[in-house]
Amino acid sequence: MKQFHAGQYISQGFYKSFQPSLINRQWQIDNMEVIQLLSQADRELGRLDMYSNYIPNTDLFISMHVLKEATQSSKIEGTQTNMEEVLLDRDDIPPGKRDDWEEVQNYIKAMESAIIALEELPLSSRLIRETHRILLQGVRGAKKQPGEFRISQNWIGGATISDAHFIPPVYTSVPELISDMEKFIHNEEIYIPELLKIALLHYQFETIHPFLDGNGRVGRLLIPLYLVNKGILKKPILYLSDFMETHRTLYYDNLMQVRENNNLTQWFKFFLVGIIETAKKGITTFDGIMQLQKQNEIKIQSLGSRAANAQKVINLLYQRPVINAEKVSKVSGLSMPSSYKLIETLEKVEILKEVTGGQRGRSYIFENYINLFR
Questions:
Q1: Last residue of a domain, one of 221, 254, 284
Q2: Are 77 and 215 in contact (CB under 8 A)?
Q3: Structural domain includes residue 292
Q4: What is the C-alpha radius of gyration for the chain, rounded to an integer number of angstroms?
Q5: Cα gap 67→74, rounded to integer Å
Q6: What are 233-274's pLDDT values in tens digits?
Q7: 267 and 354 housed in the same domain
Q8: Residue 226 domain-assigned?
Q9: Selection from 82, 113, 112, 118 nearest residue 100 by Cα
């Protein structure tokens, strides 16, 4: 890494764009602190992956991890939607917040679609572009070439390019740079630890900024996609957006440290600490889920004749922890009056909590479960 040169600024007349170096080459890691953090990150990821084996219906819980990731990743881009709002139906969202709600929903769709696509497609520019298309479909970035690499100059920060914080490479070099990234992903003759490889890929993608909009969200999606694609995780259960949102200034500063000072070491350290902390939080969440399941089993057993229908409702809540009487009726087969009685019972045993405060159109949340993901 001592020989690493990030790239160079190139004059484009009245501004300078940054042209990153190609990354599809051999790498030599010689910093002991990075190696130590890498070892710890590998251990924590292994624990998280193993822990997920003991969670019943893992796919149900992945949907909540994806939802949290979507909320946090979009928040980095300025979208203001909390988890409870994301779980509501569109008609229950105030008109002024629906654009934000739509963007988070698209993030969830993009993530789920990409994971399914990985079963048939390699992690490639084709998959990245399709993920981007879904991300921007029908939302505020819909006019910014969804699914297509940019054919004009973009910039980061600042009202105009003149006062931009960072100006990515010219659009004519995007195809070559993305092709280099794609080769690097699949080059088995390059010996570099996988976690450092995805750290480098994320940096390079954000530096190229190949789209007119949505680069941050797609770049963060690349991380779990890569880990699943390489078999490091069996399921997409690790998301760094929460860590990056919490340390947003450090995140941007460390990316700029690479570009301006060739300081890849500091970026690797930041990224690996993110992996370690996020994996530990994931394990804590899974442990909390298992404890909550045990507590709810005891509560449900005390409900007598209503226990079977209560269990059906609980099973649905683990996947989508906001519910109303109509959904209770549909999943349980009960009449509406009986559904309200079941809801009242679940409120008494502190499984459900009413959140709307109205007399009609009431919604109820599985608060103890949502709290595990906050």
A1: 284
A2: no
A3: no
A4: 23
A5: 11
A6: 888 888 888 899 889 999 999 999 999 999 999 999 999 999
A7: no
A8: yes
A9: 82
Q: Which residues contact 50 (CB under 8 A, 6 or more apart)?
A: none
Dihedral of alpha carbons 198, 202, 207, 210, sign: positive
Phi-psi region of 107 (alpha: psi -120 to 50; beta: other; left: phi over 0): alpha
Whether the Cβ atoms of residue 275 and residue 237 lie closer than 8 Å to each other: no
Cα angle: 243, vertex 5, 36; to 5 degrees: 45
CB-neighbour burial class of residue 238 (10 A; exposed 0-12, middle 13-18, buried 19+): buried
Residues 216, 307 share a domain: no
* Co-location of 128 and 209 in the same domain: yes
pTM: 0.87
Could you give the CA distance from residue 157 to residue 165 in angstroms, rounded to a whole number?
A: 5
Residues 167 and 65 grouped into a single domain = yes
Contact between residue 64 and residue 251 where contact means Cβ atoms under 8 Å apart = no
Q: 77 pLDDT band (50/70/90 cuts)? A: low
The residues, any chain, with a CB within 8 Å of residue 193's CB and separated by 6 or more, are 29, 38, 42
Task: Give the DSSP letter of residue 251.
Answer: H
**DSSP 8-class letter at 22:** P
- In this structure, are 204 and 80 located in the same domain? yes
What tokens were used for 216? 């941050």
Sign of CA dihedral 23, 27, 31, 34: positive
Strands, E, within the chain: which ranges?
7-11, 16-20, 322-323, 353-354, 364-365
Both tokens of 218, joined, read 């797609």
Residues linked to residue 364 through DSSP beta bridges, in sequence order: 323, 354
163-185, pLDDT tens digit by residue?
Answer: 999 999 999 999 999 999 999 99
User: Domain end: 252, 284, 316, which one?
Assistant: 284
pLDDT digits (tens, 9 = 90+) for 303-323: 999 999 999 999 888 878 888
What's the rounded Cα separation, in Å, for the pair 284 and 373?
A: 10
56-58-63 Cα angle (round to 5)? 140
Residue 44 belongs to domain spanning:
31-284
Closest to 119 (Cα-Cα) out of 240, 225, 232: 225
